[in-house]
Each structure stands twice: as C-alpha cells, then as structure tokens.
Amino acid sequence: MKADSNEQALLKGLANNDSRAIETIYKENFNTIQAFILNNNGSYDDARDIFQEAMIALYEKAQSESFVLTCQIKTYVYSICRRLWLKRLQQLGRYTNQVDSLEETVPVEEDLDNHEKRNAAFAIMDRAMNSLGEPCKSLLEGYYLKKLGMQELASEFGYTNADNAKNQKYKCLMRLKKLFFAQYNIGE
Amino acid sequence: MDDILLLEAIERYLSDDMSAEERSYFENLRKNTPEIDQMVVEHNMFLHQMDMYAAHRNLRHSIHDTHQRLLERGDINEGAEISTRGRVIQLWNKYKRVTAIAASVGGVIALFISGMVMYFAPTVNGNQLQQLSNDIAVIKKNQQVQGNLINEVKSKLPEGVRFVSGGSGFLIDPKGYIITNAHVLKGSGAIVVNNKGQEFNADILHIDQENDLAILKVSDKEFVPRKSLPYGIRKNSSDLGEEIYTLGYPRNEIVYGMGYLSARSGFDGDSLSYQLQMSANPGNSGAPVLNNNGEIIGVLSTRQSSAEGVVFAVKSRNIFRMVDAFKKADTAAARIKLPSKSTLKGTQRKQQIAEVEECVFYVKAFAK
C-alpha cells in the first residue's frame, strides 16, 4: 500500500503544480514513452510533445473532483500516450500496421475527449489574448494570470492611480470577452 | 461607461468583495433583471476559464522547465548534444581527467562484453536452434541416390560446381520472384526446381541476414510466368492457435505438413518470428506457412533442437518490410508486387494444396 499512497501524493503535488512532483513523474515515465514513440516511427520531438500532452491530461485528471486512481500513474500515462500517438499517426497517414506494445493499458478515450475540449477552449483564449494588442494583453495577464494587485499594475504601466488602471482593465476585459465568446459560441 | 461599472460590480460580487448591504441590493437586481443574471453567469464562467487557462500555462511552463532541467542533468536523453554549451565546457574542464578514465574503463568493459557476446551468442543459438536448410552431407546422399536421374535430364547446374545447401522457396510475384531464407543461400548461386522436377536458373537479388530472408529471380527462358498467385501475404499478425500448413522440400519431392501457431514470438522471445507446432525437417527452410484462408503468415526458418516439433517461422510482415527496403535500395525491385488477396478462401485444403504446390520451389544453392 505504500506505493499507492506515494502515487497519491505525487498526483496531489502535480495538481498543485509542485515542481518536485512534476520532476519525479517526469523522470519515472519519460524514458519508457520516448522508447515507445521512437520504436513506432516517431522522433525525439514527437516523444516530448506526446509526453507533455499526457502530463497535462494527468494533471486535469488529478484536478477533477471525481478523480480516483484506478491504476498506476505509469499505466495511465502510457495509455494516454499510446492513444495520442496512434491518433497522430493516423492523422499523418503514416504506416501503422501495428503499434508494438507489451504494456498493459487502461481505457482513456473519455478523458482524452475532455482533454481535447479543454485544449480547444484554451486555444481560443490564446488567440483572443494575442489579438488584443498591448497594453491590454499585459495588463490582463498581470491581473488575471499572474494575480498582481491593481496598485502594482498601475505603477508598472504608468497609470496615475489604481482607479485609472482598473478602468482600463475593464475596457480590455470587455474586448477580450467579446473576442473569446465570438469564437467560443461557434465552437459549442 | 455603464457597462464598465456593471462589469466591475459583477466582478466584485463574484469575488465576494461587497458589503452585505450592497450585496443584497445586487442580488435583488440580479433576480429582477434576467440580462444581469445572464451576465453574471457568463462572467463567472469566463473567469473560471481564465483561471484554468492560467493554471495550464503555468503547468506547461513548469513541464517544459522540468524537461530542460532533466535533459541538462542527463536524466533523460534526446540523442542530441546538450544545448547549454557554456556549462558543458565548464564541466568538461572540471571533469576532464575523470571522464578520460571513465571512458577508457568503459571502453575496456565494452570491448570485453562484446567479446563475451561474440564468443557465447553463436554457440548458444547453434546448440538450441537448427536451421532447416539441407547441409552438404544430406545433399550428397541425395545426389548419390539420384545421380543417374540428374545426369539423364542434364542438370542446369554449371559445370564444376557443387551443392552446398538446399531449401524451399515460393513465388511472391508471378513474374518469377521467389522468396526463401537467407541461410539457405550459402553458396554463390542457386537454381530452383518446381514440383514437376523442372530446373530453372535463378539470380540472387537480395539477401537480408537480419530478417533471414532473401529474394531470387528466375532468369530462365523456359520459365513461364503465371498470371497470378493463388495466395496472399498476410500483413497483420496471426492468432494464437490458428491452424496452419506448409509445403516444402525436405526431400526431392514436395512434402505437406500441418500444425498450429503456438506462440506469437519466436525463439527466446524473438518478435520477428512465430513459434509453430508442426514437424519440419532440414529442407523445409524457406517454405511458406499458410492459414486456412490460403494466406501466407510466415516463412519457415528454424526449429528448436532440444524439443520435438517446435518450429519457428519468420513473420510475413517482415516480407513487406524487406521488399520495401529492397525497393528503396534498388530500382530493379520496383516491379515486385506482393499478392495481398488470397483466392483460396473457403476452398478445400486439397484444392488449396494443388494450387499452392505449383508456386513452391526447391532451392538448391551451389558454390564453385
């Protein structure tokens, strides 16, 4: 049971973006996945992409409230990577007679669907953010992403007081929302 | 301006930043104005989305950093040189001597180990595995028995050469391309004999020692190319327990054998081949292994000498792989078209054999 509680702790760390936990999971799993991808028509870059995508999927899984660990992290990560890689190969139309595998896998289709939906939403947010222009982008990033105080932002961006900065922030926010929802609602 | 005030109010409401009085006023407003309620919901969702977006970006950063860190530390390896050159040079200067010693120790150990492997590997395999090509002694005997016959029909063998090994082979293209085991072709040339005893000259086109496969091309004018091949070559893996049969030349006449697929990997976990349960004898090497649908699932190659009836066949997938590689290396191979469809599906075994038989050849390798 010790291993289990260990893995739980790792996942908790991952959910809190703890760099030690990320490093441990990374170190324990990356080489297997890299070998798997390299053995199946992939490159080093592919391996890194796929593995990092799987780390994020694992993070999402660890964050969801309904999360229960039904298998080892290793198995879960491998299953995700395998699925992602098969999909990627199919998209590229590369020769995929049979992906060699001797490892056990768990079904991950549902998790991956959720993951993809989230990714799509993030991509929209990314685009919206990037089309905002400065100083809106940095201002909003400072407030909502880096969680800086209004006072700090005012001095950093050269506003005379926090209220002015706040006003500007809301103007920017309204533009961002418009950009975001224009895309997001189509996607729904 | 109103919009901004409203947005600010909503944000403060959502982040619990209102006094009790203000809050109840706002809640009342929200209850009575569906538009405002709608905006609150929307904004709440948007803020949530922003939070997740932020968390994601941070996570991506930390994962990326972790990757770089582990790469620098050498915990993971991407096959390329490390990007932070300045540090590498520093480290190199610092540990030059240690590295040199470690490298030479490593080199000695590597040499030692490869020496050991070289020394032991062939003997282990040699003891436990037996290649199913006929060796010279067997052929010699055959020649003695059949000496007259061969003289009568005037063999196609060039003068002054002798047999070194023999095995089976089968057509992979009706134009006369024959596949067999690499270990069958021990000599400098080969002739092939069909099931009626007719001999044809053949050229060795390609030998792939790794997969233990080789391609011959019948170069004889007497050879009449077939219109098509009855069998197909299976691309996918086959199932455990599948019933299989083979046709080969352990003697001068074609011999039928049957059995089943007993393991998905070959000797000592070799993933390039299958393990089969059937009887096979020297000379069966290079013979096709077919399933009930008349699809070729492998090429018979070796047997385990310590066990009865344990035979190994190179998986058919490797035929595709080898032909693809060969096509890349040599334009002469572009004409090879592997049969993918079997026309024998659903026919009786006897009928299948009658058709397949004509495409299986006795391969005799000779040396000067």
TrEMBL record, chain A:
Domain of life assignment: Bacteria
Nucleotide-binding as UniProt keyword: no
Keywords of the record: DNA-binding, Sigma factor, Transcription, Transcription regulation
InterPro entries documented for this protein: RNA_pol_sigma-70-like (IPR039425), RNA_pol_sigma-70_dom (IPR014284), RNA_pol_sigma_r2 (IPR013325)
Keyword Cell division: no
GO BP field: DNA-templated transcription initiation
Any one Gene Ontology molecular-function term assigned to this protein's record: DNA binding
Entry protein name: RNA polymerase sigma factor (Sigma-70 family)
TrEMBL record, chain B:
Transmembrane segments: 98-121
Keyword Cell cycle: no
SUPFAM superfamilies associated with the record: Trypsin-like serine proteases
GO molecular function annotation: serine-type endopeptidase activity
Source species, domain of life: Bacteria
Annotated GO biological process: proteolysis
Keyword Transmembrane: yes
Pfam families, per database record: Trypsin_2 (PF13365)
The entry's keywords: Membrane, Transmembrane, Transmembrane helix
PANTHER family (alphabetical): PROTEASE DO-LIKE 5, CHLOROPLASTIC, SERINE ENDOPROTEASE DEGS
Protein name: Trypsin-like peptidase
Organism: Sediminibacterium goheungense
Organism placement in taxonomy: Bacteria, Pseudomonadati, Bacteroidota, Chitinophagia, Chitinophagales
